[in-house]
Amino acid sequence: MGRPYTGWDGDAKGRRAGTEKLIQLIVAMSNRALWNNGSWGVRNKRGKSSKSVHGTGRAFDLSWRKMENKGSGDYGDAHRVMEFLAAHAEALRIEAIFDYWPHYGEHGRGWKCDRNGWQVYTKPAFSGVPGDWIHVEISNEFADDPGYYERTFQAILAGTSGTPAPAPAPEPAPAPAPAPKVSKPAGRRTVRRGSRGETVKEVQARLNELGFKCGPADGKFGPKTEQAVKAFQAANQPEAGPVDGVAGKVTYAVLFA
Questions:
Q1: pLDDT per residue over 8-52, tens digit each?
Q2: H/E/C letters for each residue in the chain?
Q3: pTM for this structure?
């Protein structure tokens, strides 16, 4: 079993910065073989009365349709991007990928986080097939955090083999000054959302030093600290352990290296 699938959970008031940053990064990686065919927009699903996930600001379409200055016209480019996104769905918080091109079957196929795999549809599952685009949905977790996607995407491209050859990535941020040496908190307890104490303070201070901002080191493990731990874990895969927001022995080994 994978992560729960969110679907439509309310319309956003506009575009969400994390979603838009992820779109830019994917388009750049594909060297504009794919292009943004639409993200936020409040409307119903095609041919249905139910709300489209596009309205939440967490969904976008990418087309490979050949245009004057963009789009390769080659489904293979879209296929490579889809496999890349599915392979790194945990770090990128991908919840769904829908393939509108009938390459595998006449009704397309879909990947969802709750089954953590692809399904080829044997009957109509969505309107628009055949269509020269893919549909992607992400979780709420970092939909408003472009910095998370910049850090995570760069980490994936730096350490991944067997994925699509990326176009030149956006210039990375200047490397931070070397952090002072910190002793590894050997034998200290695992901390998670709701934990309090000196171990939490030390984790918070170290995350802040490394640029994973979690607010003041007050010893209270709240949602900001949990988000920062997840971002650190995602950017240091697989050494930092699962992206679960729980700081324990495996995560400490990297965090306090």
A1: 999 999 999 999 999 999 999 998 999 999 999 999 987 788 999
A2: CCCCCCCCCCCCCCCCHHHHHHHHHHHHHCCCCCEEEECCCCCECCCCCCECHHHHCCEEEEECCCCCCCCCCCHHHHHHHHHHHHHCHHHHCEEEEEECCCCCCCCCEEEECCCCEEEECCCCCCCCCCCCEEEEEECCCCCCCHHHHHHHHHHHHHHCCCCCCCCCCCCCCCCCCCCCCCCCCCCCCCECCCCECHHHHHHHHHHHHCCCCCCCCCCECCHHHHHHHHHHHHHCCCCCCCCCCCECHHHHHHHCC
A3: 0.64
